[in-house]
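User: Before I run my own analysis I want an independent prediction to cross-check against. Here's the chain; please return only the structure tokens and, at the end, one sentence I can use as a sanity check.
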Amino acid sequence: MRIIRDHTYVDHSDRGASVAIGNFDGVHLGHQAVIDVARQAGERIDAPLGILTFEPHPRQYFAPDAPPFRLMGHAARANRLQKLGVERLYELNFNAALSALTPQEFARDVIVDGLGLRHVVVGADFCFGKGRAGNAEQLTQFGADLGFGVTIMPLLQGTTGQVSSTAIRIALTEGRTRDAAAMLGHWHRIEGTVIGGEQRGRGLGYPTANMSIDGLHPPRFGVYAVQVDVLNGPHAGQYNGAASLGVRPMFNGEQPNLETFLFDFSGDLYGAELSVALVEYLRPEETFDSLDAFISQMDADCARARDILAAE
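Assistant: Structure tokens:
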């Protein structure tokens, strides 16, 4: 998959794709449905499958001090899109110039002159251009005038209602990992680099791989049964484990992070890239009267997590 970040400097071989347009936070089933239609359109016109998205997320750009809301960072999004067979990822830099384009200017300057797109697929609620003034129907008219095809997709309905990034955030906030997975089409994952910690877990017999969740929507704090992909390095592979997500009240922590204990593992993971899937919420964060009580609870958490993951 090739990543293109500037619509004004595009190699000829990267033009002419059939794309789905959106932010694709979480790459949930609704997103995947839009991508599949773009794929089918591309097959009909012999065009590569592409995604047109933006970085930073426009919501981040306009409200940089708002609480974190993203389900995944841009690298995790790219990894997920590549697994879906995307060939061109137009991850355009969302800045003052791009945000100032009117809907017509966006269609002309970005879609046609910049990227030379042949077909675009959007959801029925798609808005674009300065002040979100353009909608899907206007995009269809621009396509007719400027020479690119447009497909408008109805919003996907799941068993619990409309599938959306907002609904997934709510499910994760409430610890409903399986409801989130039903909308995502996969387990919700937190991806990142293993960073140095205080190594308390090692002294307790539970060494953990620590990861920052900075910039991400925080799921419900507590302990989870997890599936872990170590993405690189000598220990690359798949593992089961238990993870603590939160501020570690037992040790007066303040900065939220994710601490993952891998079952039946021995080795150094510092600097490795991990993808941690939250399979089931086990319990909230707690404080304990003693380290012995804390270790006893961790023993119980891991035993329960093993049973849950063995059934997956």
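Sanity check: The chain has a mean pLDDT of 92.
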